[in-house]
Amino acid sequence: MSTESADGGSANPRIEVTETAAERALELLEAEDYDTTEAGLRLFVQQGGCAGLSYGMRFDEKPEADDAIYDHHDLRVFVDPASLKYIEGSILDYESGLQAEGFHVENPNVVSECGCGESFRT
Q1: Considering the entire predicted model, what is its pTM?
Q2: How many CB atoms lie within 10 A of CB 109?
Q3: Contact in structure between 103 and 58 (CB atoms under 8 Å)
Q4: What are the sequence ranges of the domains in the chain?
Q5: Which of the residues 38, 47, 107, 111 has an alpha carbon 20 to 30 A from that of 54?
Q6: Architecture of the 2-121 domain
Q7: Of 61, 62, 63, 103, the residue nearest 83 (C-alpha)
Q8: pLDDT in tens, 14-65
Q9: d(CA 75, CA 82)
Q10: DSSP character for 108?
Q11: For the Core domain, which residue ranges apply (predicted)?
């Protein structure tokens, strides 16, 4: 298990989270009565979508033994090794506006996305 911190830990974190995304995720975790000192947001990649891969997110009570753990603005983010190779260097953000509201992954490894932006290929 590796641990990196955006608040003074590793100089080059492999996954970053904006303050807005962290605040929103923490609000949702607390609303569901998770202990935010142990629980966190799991970010993963799964097969699916018209471009081949899609992002997934869920809350987990604790990390798995082989997860990379990233701490950003008091939010813990868990990433399994298989997913990390697809999303290394990504930034998780939260957008809210007239058109849409939700979490968005800015992934530098993407070579193409489907038209709706829900799936990608590296």
Answers
A1: 0.81
A2: 13
A3: no
A4: 2-121
A5: 38
A6: Sandwich (2.60)
A7: 63
A8: 899 999 999 999 999 999 999 999 999 999 988 776 657 788 999 999 999 9
A9: 21
A10: T
A11: 15-118
